[in-house]
Specification:
mainly alpha, single chain, 3 helices
Length: 161
Amino acid sequence: SQLQANSNQMQANINQMQANSSQLQANSNQMQANINQMQANSSQLQANSSQLQLTSNQMQANSSQMQANSSQMQLQISGGERSGALYAQSRQVGKEAGELSSEQLVKAIQDTFASSGHSRSGKARQHGPSVCNICGKTFATPWTLKEHSRVHTGTATGKLK
């Protein structure tokens, strides 16, 4: 009977060892799955980091472009202020001198074009709105202003207005 009890105890120990072995195997499998998940997460983090770097570089490029656009807009604004000042100056000269002859008017328009950043060829050196120094109308391009100035010189209609 003692032998039988020992045999039963040994069988119970063997069963417990088998259960422990199965549990160890399950734990080992779970650890391997965790390692695989950590490796996948690490790869995803590296991909995200690369994407963030690309986004950061793009944002820096956009910021530089925005600064360049801002500078260009400041130049255009200052050019518009300059055109406005030229217009005011020409109005004052007109008031002081009374009526201008057509030759004086043509000369004033040519001088205005020369001082507003345009070359003799008519090509703009600066971009921005063009303002007629005679009537104050604003034009998108220097060419349309030049065409408009003919209204004041009489070359468009054949008579001085």
